[in-house]
Amino acid sequence: MLTGGLADLTAALDTVLTESLSALSAAELTTRACELERLASKLEAARCATLAAAAGAADAPATLRELGYRNPAQAVADRAKVDPRVARRMLRLGTWVMDFPIFAAAFAAGDLTHRHLDELRKLDSSERRLALVEAQEYLVEAAATCDFEDFLRTVVYWLNAADPDGQEPREQTARTGCSYRKHADGSVSGRFFLDPLAGQAFRRAVDSESQRLFRQDAEDGRVRSPWQRGGEALVSLVANGAKAGAGAAGPVTPLVNIVVGLELAENLADQLTGAEVTPMAPSLDDVDRRCELDDGTPLHPRLAAVALASGMLRRIVLDAAGRPLDASVKARGFPPWMKEILLIQARGRCRSPGCDAPLAWLQADHVRPHSRGGPTALSNGQILCDPHNKWKRDREAG
Known about the structure:
Blueprint: H1 4-18, H2 26-56, H3 60-67, H4 72-79, H5 84-97, H6 101-108, H7 114-123, H8 129-134, H9 136-145, H10 148-161, H11 167-175, E1 177-182, E2 188-193, H12 196-220, H13 226-245, E3 258-260, H14 262-272, E4 291-293, H15 301-310, E5 328-329, H16 336-346, E6 362-366, E7 376-377, E8 381-385, H17 386-397
Antiparallel strand pairs: 1-2, 3-4, 5-7, 6-8
């Protein structure tokens, strides 16, 4: 029989579950869903903390052994009939977060979810433990003020700043590779790992080709899944790349755009010349120390230095707030160079809040429509995905 807080919680949940939802508006239901997410995070924290406390209890070994269980996670999986992997994850997370009191408090308050903590836990190592303990307040604040994607960017920026010697990119480069297997029926399967630069080139190429196939399918009335279009896109790119590279002096070089702040670029250039300089840490918030791909993915300066040594440079002047200085053209559509600047400003994301459309869907759009006198200028430009751009046009037409 439940007593105390659990009894109250059960009664409160029963009340919530029996409340009628039909009388609520969409806005009210959305607010309700957001509050339930926060409560779910707090409940998750209680579950993890309880399992960790059970594992650490003085009588745990003898009691669990007497009941026939190795640990509390096994007991919960058996008696509550839940997935053992979920119970083990909660036990590991609850035990780990005990060493990080600020993370634990934010978890209990619903400010950190288990997804946030799963990402933070991946950063922990003997070399980074002290730095991670010291960064707790900063990372909790990022979780509270950023959406999840931006939180991940903050985490990677922190990781890159905490790794000035470039151990992480060296390991990524060493792991880069591809293998495939031909089966008896002639089909082929495989696996691969790419470092961030190669990965960006791969994603941009496959996403762009998949989007072309999507438009072609719409015109032809053909229905295919993203998985199927992705497979055809990969085969098409390989075939076209082999055709383009036939007879060429060297391999086909894909286009990858990297955004590097001026101060950081100068520091990297000094390092390349062999000057004795202290490597500069990248920063998410300082425009002069940005280091990322054009879709906003953080990039370790060590990888940017490799590109800086062999790539072509383009200067884009931003103000202190990261806004590009304006430039106008007399054209209805945004030229490619202007779209690139808008993409950099938007960090490769649709302007509509919460939208996670892939890069290949993104378009440069006039904030004030061109048909109503809006100029084709950076100050009047924004990035929208294809669906949100169409909805905007439909609203304007209505």
